[in-house]
Amino acid sequence: MMMNPSFLIEAGLAMFAGALLNLTPCVLPAVPIKVRTILREAGETAGSRALSATLFTLGSVSFFAALGLLTALAHLQWGVLFQSRWVLTGLILILVLLAAASFSRRSLPIPGALAQLGGARYFEPFASGMAGGILSTPCTGPLLGGVLVFALTRPTLDIVTLFVAIGLGMALPYVLLLLRPSWLQRLPRAGAWTEVVRRSFGWLLFAAALFFAQSLLPGWLGNALWLVWLAALALWVVFVAMRARDQRSRWAAVLAALPALVLAYFGSGVWPVVGQGMPWQPLHADAVAQISGLHRPALVEFTAAWCLNCRVMERTVYRDPEVLKAVRESGAIALQADLTRPDPALQTLLTRYGGAGLPFLAVLDSRGREVGHFSGLFTAGALIGRLHELPTSIVSTDAGAPRDSADEVGARMASTPAGAVVTLDIARGWHVYSNPPSTRYLIPASVTAFRAGHALSITPRYPPGQDIGMRIARQTILVYENGVRIGLPGLTDLRAVQVRVRVQACKDSGLCLPPATIVARPPAG
Fold first, then answer.
1. HSE value, Cβ hemisphere, 13 Å, CA-based, for 517
2. Helix, strand or coil, per DSSP, at residue 268
3. Is 79 helix (H, G, I), strand (E, B) or coil?
4. Is 197 exposed, middle or buried (CB count within 10 Å of its CB: 0-12, 13-18, 19+)?
């Protein structure tokens, strides 16, 4: 029976995309494991190298075949393995053991049963292939989203076959190097510098362990461990450079530390960040149904603490000044769905938008309809182009729908001997941002008094904001709720005075309406 030509094309694309996975940041921690296997076997006989290449492929294929079977039987989304604390804990322990092995002269830890069977030597290539597959899963969905959508409409055998093709593609570059070690001869001859490079892999593996551990640790502890790691890496580089007898080893110590520093830069929260970031507001499961009622465009980003590509996007595209300008001009609200832990409602929303992995960004119009999406890594220009295609109006055609913050916030003014007082009447379940704002991109409640069209030089007295549990980028957001009073000291004569209040109304669940300027009602009589 001949196989469907379209399925063969999809299998080929899956294999090609599997090879591309080697270029994603998620696989970076697995590179030293794979390179170690290649260098270990490069000088052996052709038969030994062929056996190692076969076991390396089996390690990669066995993981993806198991993942394919789970996908077919349980409709598993790629990357959800990392939502499990047990999986993360096990992965962290493995990375720490591998790092320790890199610093020592020993091979990977081998179970006693395998060693007794004479399999110790060939356990390493199998484990290397499997480790690469495991570490790639957070990046797999974005590269292979189209393949996955096609696969889920096929029988179980076809789904598993496509996943096997992914594993084959991912293993292919390393298998070729194992079979043709002569391609490695262009590298400088081995010497003391190669030992420095081999040990430097341990710092990269420790950094990978720290990156995944962040999902399980308090923020302060994760940052403290990163600082300890950075200090230890610096001391190691200085120590090696001072003890090295040749210039090549000194340069090797410095250059070999760079990949670990790159991982630390994108993966940790201890590096200073320049510029303003995207004003994400948390999207919780109970607010998913309200997205269509925002009556303004929206960006919905799906992210997770264990997604390295997500961190890359946060430090690059989402901090681009032109991107932030395009978001403001479009009137779009930026919502962030955190899938660090399992959340069925958010995962269903991701699937509905066509997402198969993280990071994923959905672009919605003012009616809550998806008009485009970005999967995996993308450029600032691509996002700006999509934002410019959005309609500029954020007013709903439904006359009964709220159009801006004035529909949820009112203001009234009263006179006291010390001056005027403005009281905000805020609808139940809504709030406005405090003044001063908790972060500079928020729009705080602000009051300005006018007489005969001219602004009066009065400094309002804003009360302290309230903490209702809102956090954006780990920062507490303070707000005002119904009945908050703002003083205008010295303003005792209210004749011909108009007080304007600028506010942005947001639901306690995190969704906001466009800002509005309202006029405070004067005192009765």
1. 6
2. coil
3. coil
4. middle
Q: Does the pLDDT at position 138 exceed 60?
A: no
- How many beta carbons lie within 10 A of that of residue 24, not counting itself? 20
The owner of tokens 């908790």 is: 438
* Residue 66 to residues 20, 164, 167, 274, Cα–Cα distance (Å): 20, 9, 11, 42
- One DSSP character per residue, 179-206 reads H-GGGGGGSPPPSHHHHHHHHHHHHHHH
Residue 378 — φ and ψ, nearest 5°? -150, 170
Mean pLDDT over the full length of the chain = 77
Note the pLDDT tens digit of each residue in 66-95. Answer: 877 776 665 555 556 677 788 788 878 877
Which region holds residue 395: left if phi is over 0, alpha if psi is between -120 and 50, else beta?
Answer: beta
pLDDT digit string, tens, across residues 167-208: 888 888 777 777 776 665 555 555 566 667 667 777 877 888
What are 100's two structure tokens?
Answer: 């320790």
What pLDDT does 401 receive?
44
Range scoring the smallest mean pLDDT among 169-178, 281-290, 324-333: 169-178
Q: 3-class SS at 267?
A: helix
pLDDT at 182: 65
Q: Contact 59/124 with Cβ under 8 angstroms?
A: no
Q: Which residues contact 310 (CB under 8 A, 6 or more apart)?
A: 303, 304, 358, 359
pTM summary value: 0.59
Say if strands 497-503 and 430-433 run parallel, antiparallel, or are unpaired: unpaired
Question: Would you call the peptide bond into 436 cis, given omega within 30 degrees of 0 as the criterion?
Answer: yes
Q: Which residues contact 436 (CB under 8 A, 6 or more apart)?
A: 444, 462
CA distances 467 to 477, 508, 516, Å, are 7, 11, 23
Query: Between β-strands 370-375 and 497-503, what pairing exists: parallel, antiparallel or unpaired?
Result: unpaired
Q: Which residue has the tokens 């390295």?
A: 308
Q: How far is CA 322 from each of CA 147, 360, 500, rounded to the nearest angstrom?
A: 33, 20, 31
